[in-house]
Amino acid sequence: MRISELDTPALVIELDIMEANLRRVAEYARNHDLRLRPHTKTHKTPALGRKQLDLGAAGLTVAKVSEAEVMLASGVEDLLVAYPVIGRKKIERLIEVARKTKVTVSLDNLVTARQISEVARQERVEIQVLVEADVGLERVGIVPGAELVELGRAVSNLPYMKLAGAAFYPGHIKSMDESGMEAVRKLSETVGSMVRQFQSAGLQLDIVSGGSTPTLMQSHLVAGLNEIRPGTYIFNDRNTVECGACRWEDCAASILVTVVSTAKQGQIIIDGGSKTFSSDRLATTGEPTFGRVVDAPEAVFTKMNEEHGFARVSETSFQVGDRVRVIPNHICVAVNLHEQVYGVRNGEVEQVWKVEGRGKLQ
Length: 362
Description:
- This protein has helices at 15-31, 46-54, 65-71, 88-98, 110-123, 146-156, 178-200, 238-242, 331-336; strands at 10-14, 35-36, 60-62, 78-81, 102-107, 127-133, 161-168, 207-210, 227-228, 253-261, 267-270, 291-293, 300-304, 309-312, 323-328, 340-345, 348-354.
- By secondary structure, it is an alpha/beta fold.
- It folds into 2 domains: 3-9 and 243-354, Beta Barrel (Lyase, Ornithine Decarboxylase, Chain A, domain 1); 15-234, Alpha-Beta Barrel (TIM Barrel), CATH 3.20.20.10.
């Protein structure tokens, strides 16, 4: 099937670009002796997780237990749940996943650790733990210091819990300009100091897991870091370009839409709105736009209703029925809105992948 035969809106993946992205990061990780455990929040598709593993990823990362259940289909042998797992129902499901593959969780408090330990003890299943450090985002995690070390010690003393290391997410670093590089230098000081604190306390951190797509190619500059968990890099998006972490030609994913109205001069309406695109604004500027219109880069995607996308255009060459591609600001959320994605090469649809992790919130 040709791409021209796809009904719209359709989330299209350029396979050559995606595969180049995967190879580039896998090679970077190998060259810098970094374990690659990609976050699957971007693609939410076991078949793509399998591709990452086949290229040398040491494991995969998910946010929710339901995503972990889905990703078992990739054949993953090392799965990190990088989000607090709270409540007996979720923990029981987590333990069932851990019967099938090695499971690690990240956490920042003893309440969570004790809940998981209790169920793990009853079921006689060991869970690996990364204690979560807050390195600047102020979302989850403990600021590195005595409190974090004490949490690590307490975890290591709980039954069926093994302290495997520490985790962090430098999501406060949005761009790789001069200020961003200075933030990476400070991050290196923070993480290096954290590792030394654990060593001084006699606690071994086998894994120091961190990173993001914006800071991906600076990961080797962070002292002590030995595992990276990028997610967006597989597809990239407008935010990734704007923060300086990739080029437009590295964006594998776009949403194919149809112009359904040109009734107002200087404006086109496309058949994709808030049910199709992420409502996220640009992470770097907050500019009121929801994506880049590939076929008309000067166009401004200004507004969305549920089914309507509004783009301000300077040219009048668009006609009803024209098809355009839009690179969304935030591809991870956009993928979650689509039931399937289409892998395309040279205009031909080679693959149709069901987004099996779509809507897995629990």
